[in-house]
Amino acid sequence: MADPRLDNLRPLLAAMIRQLFKADRLDDVREATAHGARLISPYDALTLRERGISGPPAMTMRRGEELDASAKSLERHLCQEASRTGEAVSTLDRFESDQAQALANAYVRRYGLCLTLPLRVFGEEFGMLTLHYNGRAALFDAELEALRTFADYAAIALYNAHARQDLRDFAYTDPLTGLASRRRLDLVLARLRDTELSLLLVDFDGLKAVNDALGYDRGDALIAMVGAVLAASVNEGELAARLGGDEFVLVLPDVDEQRARLRAEELTALLDSVAVPDDLGSLFQGASVGAATAEPGEDSLAVLRRASNEMRSRKRRRKTDRDVLARERGLLGLEGDPALD
To answer: What is the mean pLDDT of residues 9-28?
Structure first.
């Protein structure tokens, strides 16, 4: 007896494809893929794999029932076969390997059907979509054809989402530190215009000395280390961004002036004491942190300028303190004493 649902597959398939291409973010496209496959052919478990820059496709999503070790082993084999042939592979197929065939036979007896559909874009393998069905030995022809068509469109939607994500990362993420870029900072400050917020502007000391003495690769290493410290210092809802060179900004929404100055002192102490490799230790001199809090109606870019001015004032005072300490050491004959560094 024919499944009456099959009469509705064509309009359903069209609706699910529209949902794929309405989704923008990569995770949303993945969810649309799982949702569409479930409505077209209700499964008990789904696994999505996508190829990265190099290497075989890696699992990026699993939905439905938990898989045991034998089901996962079968799934991996079906993916290998689908990759080799470029075609859909299931437990209905005959396998050359006795071990693989035994694995498929055992799965069919215990569960039912397992199907892997290759996701291909421009003739190249991009990923795999595996579906598990308990109590079903096979799919209707129209159901399988609809899944194949849906998988073709899902591959394109996922590929496009990856491309959009790469563009976002390029535009809004600093490649050296992984922090927000200046462009993203500008967007966030524009969004928070005329709201209550505080900004910390961080400028660490010693980058020029490192670049001059050890080369730009070690200077980049120092920038990356400072970026990692800042990334670990922000709370939920806050933002750490790199302005450029050795300057960074922390955006602190709903943080008043007193708390902002406390955060600035804590961050200064943290960066002054951060452990750096031996070759950088004598050149890195901690960081100067300026804090500024938005006044009612004040533009966030004006707040950033005030934070910058405060940072530069602190930087001058820190340099003066270091110069005084160095002179005192020289007078006492203690220059270079490691116990005092």
So the answer is: 94
